Amino acid sequence: MSRAAETKQQTTRRFAGRVAIVLTFFVLAASSLVARAVYLQVLDKDFLNRQADTRHLHTEKISAHRGSITDRNGEPLAISTPVDSVWANPKELASAVDSVPKLAAALNLDSPLLMRRITRSMDKQFLYLKRHLRPDEAHRVMALKLPGVNVLREYRRYYPAGEVAGHLIGFTSVDDDGQEGLELAFNHWLGGESGAKRVLKDRLGRPVENVESIRPPRHGKDLAASIDLRLQYLAYRTLKAAIQQHHADSGSIVVLDVLTGEVLAMVNQPTYNPNDRAQFSAERYRNRAITDIFEPGSSIKPLILAAALESGRYRPSSTVDTTPGYIMVGPKKIEDHRNLGRISLTTVLSRSSNVGASKIAMSLEPDQLWRTMKSFGLGSLTSSGFPGESAGLLTHYSHWQPISRATLAYGYGVSVTPLQLTQAFAALGSDGWLRPVSLVKLDQPNVGERIISDDTAKAIRRMMEEVVRPGGTGTKASVTGYRVAGKTGTSWKFAAGGYSEDKYVSVFAGLAPASNPRLAIVVVIDEPGGDLYYGSDVAAPVFADVMAESLRLLAVPPDALPALDSGSVMQAMSQ
Fold it and tell me: Alpha helices, DSSP H only, in 207-276?
């Protein structure tokens, strides 16, 4: 054999060997793959299922909507509207980092800031990009088809009445949890419980199929508030005008149903719009009618006279000698505007005699006077359940000095909230029954507690009617066609080192119709400016406007229609 042939034969054998080696490698590799496939799909198929589930099956929240709040007539005060929140899986979104500027533009966010948020959250699987978008805005984001970007349906709170009922209704957080007002007080009732579902998604994170329901959502329950939105708007409009007219710092109005204890209106100034989170500050959103206390001044005198009648030491016909127009209690001089001489209890109220009220209070036993004030709700919560409610201040009689009883008689040394004072006057209107205050609509009136006799309550109401009649201090609180029982109050505000002599609180508290009271209303104007600052000039006209329109809206029959002479009646019949 030639050398060439031998070389060719060797080359052929080497090539055949290489082919055999390659074929053996491929056979072994194929066998390994087949073995692995058989192992995974037959012997260990759960592994692939787990991997598939991890990549394509996701558990998503099913948001529950919050219960609505309405007024007593069904008018909406707080409702939940559907919105979409955009979220992302940062790890998946990082694979499309070049598209982040487009995403930021669609979300109206700063692109570098969004990029930093994404990169700082690479260890997370869930990151909110923007909450509470309109559905069309969310659709524009999803149209970008970015990996890891998803939309979650949520609900946002909307308040149709805006600032008219903001202080009472309150507001919720971005997560729809109650933060203030009725939203917080009844959060357990209004709030729902989110559900969950398992969803199959494609590689871009887009939903393909709802696989199963894990837990259905439990939606919140609706709540009917006690207020009447018609009266609420009336009180809001009237108070706002008064605050502007008198250049006052703030003010409150409370309208209470004497028969049931329900709050029919409660407004404050300044106010805020719960739909605008930029206005959320404690100074604006706190409900002053429930949280703020003040010294009531002479508006407390009807309660002092009620204590006097209940003691048995006085009768409605009793008199008090106020001569010479002042009294000295230790170094303190208490005086009236002029010497009224010997006057009746009715005149003590109608002319608002500090001397007469002080003498009466000092003649009573301290414990008896304290118990009566306490029974009217002073120094105690009203049971409204409103978050942050103040109990006011009524010092125990064991700590009283003689001057304490004297100043208590005309509203100093004791502090109340507007709601407390309204509840106390409502007790006079309900013939001595103190009813728990309710901020929700009641099917049945609250069971009250008798605190004074019906004779005492009726006698005090008759005395308070003289306050509003000619010669009294509250004539500007009169309402055409109705008998009104009320009391003015003006107090100096406490300041560092004592009482300020140029800062006042103006008050009017009253009932109507006095013959059978339906409404109790308290008006408080804090620090009115200008020349007018007495409760008779500032708060009384506001009371009259609110009371007149409220009685008309509630169709309460008049009890003081002008009498027609017989000649007019005969003339009308002949026509």
Answer: 229-245
Regarding whether 192 and 244 lie in a shared domain, the answer is no
Is residue 28 in some structural domain?
no
β-strands 69-70, 223-224 pairing:
parallel
pLDDT higher than 90, residue 205: no
Residue-wise pLDDT tens digits, 21-37 = 877 877 777 777 777 66
pLDDT of residue 572: 47
Q: Would you say residue 51 has pLDDT above 60?
A: no
pLDDT at 442 over 50: yes
Which residues form the domain of 478?
229-553
> At which residue do the structure tokens 């030491």 appear?
313
CATH number, domain with residue 357: 3.40.710.10
Q: Please indicate, yes or no, whether residues 239 and 218 belong to a single structural domain of this protein.
A: no
Percent of the chain topping pLDDT 70: 88
pLDDT tens sequence across 224-248: 999 999 999 999 999 999 999 999 9
What CA–CA distance (Å, rounded) separates 210 from 526? 59
168 near 121, Cβ under 8 Å?
A: no
Burial of 516 (0-12, 13-18, 19+ CB in 10 A): middle
30, HSE (Cβ side, Cα atoms, 13 Å): 6
Residue 439 located in a structural domain: yes
- Which residue did the predictor score with more confidence, 523 or 58? 523
Structural domain contains residue 34: no
**Domain termination residue (choose one: 224, 249, 284):** 224
Exposed e or buried b for every residue in 220-246, given b needs 16+ CB within 10 A? beebbbbbbbbbbebbbebbbebbebb
Q: What integer is the mean pLDDT of 34-47?
A: 64
Residues 6+ apart with CB under 8 A from 326: 333, 334, 335, 336, 355
Number of Cα atoms under 13 Å in the Cβ half of residue 101: 1
Can you give 46-65 as a three-state secondary structure string? Answer: HHHHHHHHHHHEEEEEECCC
DSSP-assigned beta bridge partners for residue 525: 251, 506
Radius of gyration of the chain (CA): 38
Contact 514, 464 (CB under 8 A): yes
Please tell me the distance from the alpha carbon of residue 427 to that of residue 407, in angstroms, as a whole number: 23
Contact criterion met (CB below 8 Å) for 285 and 384: no
Instruction: Give the count of domains, the chain.
Output: 2
Coil, strand or helix at 282: helix
Among 224, 248, 279, the domain-final residue is 224
For residues 263 and 439, give the distance between their C-alpha atoms in angstroms, rounded to a whole number.
6
The pLDDT of residue 212 is: 58
Catalytic hit among 63, 85, 298, 299: 298
Q: Which two tokens stand for residue 123?
A: 């260890």
Angle subtended by helix axes 454-468 and 418-429, to nearest 10: 110
Active site residue 298: yes
Beta bridge partners of 488: 508
Q: Please say if the pLDDT value at position 335 is more than 90.
A: yes
